[in-house]
Write a structure and sequence with these properties.
With 136 residues, the protein is of the alpha+beta class. Helix content is 35%, strand content 23%. The chain has one domain.
Length: 136
Amino acid sequence: MKEFHIYGLCTDLIKPGDLLLDHLKAAMNRQELEIREHDIIVLAESAVATAQGRITSLKTIKPSGRALQLSRQYEMDPALAEVVIQESDEIIGGINGFLSVVATPLALILAVESGSFTVLILASLSYLIALVASLF
């Protein structure tokens, strides 16, 4: 029977320009974990965007007509709706305060001397569960 383990890593606060690998190494060292062959490391999209400096003040965003319509329909900040539109492939619905979107997930495959492992950048826990389930 195959088995898998899930570990949450507690990193320091990630700031624009930080190297995520440094945060991962430090968190793994604190928790006495090491990367082994076939391990999968999952990163939150928000951590990656922050490290890349892809953060903005909503005060600087000019909402489009579509953003204004969505903000009225789903009772949310028009500037936030505009950012979601810009970062998504498709808006498929929503509930008050939230938009449901389709966005292409990013995946990076890295090789290191200790073996091969995969780093996945995901925005959706349900996608992660589907991915892990597909491995078994």
